[in-house]
Design a protein that fits this description.
single chain; alpha/beta; Rossmann fold; six-stranded parallel sheet; 12 strands
Length: 370
């Protein structure tokens, strides 16, 4: 049996979901062949390979422009109208379907479903099940559900309600969580409350808005009773600057830590980060409340809305607001933090990848009984 997972490099959440699903499928069914492919970028020209970089630059430096584009594709069928211009991607997808004959095609990026509709437009029926794993919450663009899919897997119940209100049949919706790494389903949480040494553990992930990092760290260093860890990725210069800024105050600076992130989340009482889909869902899977520092218009607005409305953290869109939220969380032996933690745990799905993998395998057996 073969499962084809289609992703795209427009935001890390799509790729993270695809990678984690592959890991879970191979763990649940080692004999299954699992392919993860980005047909929009594989084997195409230089210009299209720059598209993810253009996307990141736009959301960082021209968010208003990105909002207009997001609203355009939400309110009009522009994606389905123009999907045929991606002829190389369509040819690549058609070749994959012909060569591997997948039982299930899983999409973690909505454009892939429109491409599937284009490739299969002359077929009476499809010899595979199509499952869409929606990586956004609450503010779900209609491009996700405007194309064909046999099932839509959403991260949480409120997102399922959004699809129902948009007209997606109830029997096509499954609340399965966001596919987080398998380690979240087994790792132990190690964050005593209150902390024995009196220092609450705070993890700050520096994302795209690196210019604000020194001001944010400076404000956090003024918060009492914190054990602060800052992950700067591959930006060594920023790490050196923050270390100098701290002087003799306690701070831990980390570089590129993808393998360590689940454990760090489980050890931290609080995460400070932008409202990226994968980051927010991984924090919830660890039961870690979140202070959100930045929200990309459109897809990330729903992630922030979920955290704030469900009481799993707060918005902190300035260094002062971040520091105030942190101090509020830990007052009175962490009374506010305990409420946030309870909400975060209720929203998290640490075993989501395995549960969605089981759904994929069950769907393939219904179509092609063993």
């Amino acid at each position: 049996m073969t499962v084809l997972i289609l992703t795209a490099g427009f935001g890390e959440g799509h790729n993270a979901a695809a990678r984690n699903l592959k890991e879970a499928l191979l763990a649940a069914s080692p004999g299954t062949k699992v392919l993860v492919v980005d047909v929009f970028l594989d084997g195409v020209g230089w210009l299209k390979k720059q598209a993810p970089s253009v996307y990141l630059a736009t959301i960082d430096h021209a968010p208003a422009l990105w909002r207009l584009f997001y609203q355009l594709i939400d309110r009009t069928p522009v994606v389905s109208w123009h999907i045929g211009i991606h002829r190389q991607a369509a040819a690549r997808l058609e070749a994959l379907l012909h060569e591997h004959q997948p039982s299930v095609v899983v999409s973690t990026y909505p454009g892939n479903n429109h491409l599937l509709d284009y490739v299969c437009r002359r077929r009476v029926s499809r010899p595979f099940t199509t499952i869409t794993v929606v990586t956004d919450s609450l503010t779900i663009n209609s491009v996700w559900y405007r194309a064909h899919s046999d099932l839509f897997v959403v991260a949480n119940a409120p997102s399922g309600d959004v699809l129902r209100q948009a007209g997606v049949p109830d029997d096509k919706i499954r609340v399965g969580g966001f596919p987080v790494p398998l380690v979240f389903s087994t790792q132990k949480v190690d964050r005593p409350v209150p902390p024995p040494d009196g220092r609450w553990r705070v993890l700050y992930l520096v994302n795209s808005d690196r210019k604000s990092a020194p001001a944010i760290v400076s404000r956090l260093l003024d918060c009492p009773n914190l054990s602060l860890t800052v992950a700067v990725g591959r930006d060594e210069a920023l790490g050196d600057r923050l270390q100098k800024l701290a002087q003799d105050r306690p701070i831990e600076i980390l570089g590129w830590i993808p393998g360590r992130l689940p454990a760090l989340m489980a050890e931290s009482h609080l995460l400070i980060s932008k409202a990226g889909g994968a980051t927010v869902q991984e924090a919830l899977a660890a039961g870690t409340p979140i202070i959100i520092t930045k929200v990309v218009p459109g897809q990330e607005e729903g992630n922030a809305q979920l955290v704030v409305e469900q009481g799993a953290g707060a918005l902190g869109l300035s260094p002062e607001a971040i520091g105030d939220a942190v101090e509020k969380a830990f007052r009175e032996d962490g009374a506010q933090w305990k409420a946030w933690h309870t909400a975060a745990k209720s929203l998290g799905h640490p075993a989501a990848s395995l549960e969605i993998a089981d759904l994929i395998l069950e769907s393939s057996q219904l179509l092609f009984p063993l």
